[in-house]
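Sample pair:
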Amino acid sequence: MGKDKLNERQEIKCRLQKKIEEYTEKMTVIAFTGEIKSRILLKAASQLPESKRSRILAVTVNGCLRPRVEIELAKREAVAFGMNHYIFDMDELRNGQIRSNSSDRCGQCRRYLFKNIEKLCRPLKAEQVLWGVDFDDWKEEGIRQIAEEFHLCAPLATLGISRRELAGLAQEFSLPFYSVFSKDCYTTRFPEGTILTLEKLNQAEQGENFLRSLNIWDIKIKIVENDIWLSAGNQGILKMVAHREEIVEYLRNLGYERVVIDLVP
């Protein structure tokens, strides 16, 4: 790597740490998920002096729309960073628009999340919430609206840190730049308008976990009524074909009638 590129990454890292240090003048919450952006925020916070670090709390939601194993990963990472961490339960299906898988499900889910975090902040006397969105995310009107509505702070976006700079920044913080899970929640596995239930979401999670147990990591699934469509990259397709019989047997036992391999990922 060129010296100029390395210096640029180090400069971005220093600017981010300085920015997060500014937030520690008040009690601060970081919305902590398995995504690399929130991990970068928390790792940057973890390198501050203890007097400042103690004013930051990582908060993770335990809901039904994301893989449950992410909770365990979040726990382990917060401990490894030496940060205070709180997990709270949230039933997203109580929100009618999320339950009906409406076209605005992402906006509704984010609002539901930050309403709950807002309630949590009151007894903690936390005055601000940091959200892991980058400069590219900030270009989306819906993201900006939610940030303004809930008075969220977005240090990555504020500093102009783009998506393409995240991998280098993660490396500077000695963070592996990967996610073993899809960035999309389980609502995306179903067509818009599908009434979601805990049973349907659990079925989708079990199916994906089984496919990952066969070392198929780039899997994407789509569930239409009682049919399940599977797609992946070239290697994933070859692995699905090789494990065809056990995949079909497992997914049918979950309740799916047809198992379809979709060659268009």
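The radius of gyration is 20 Å.
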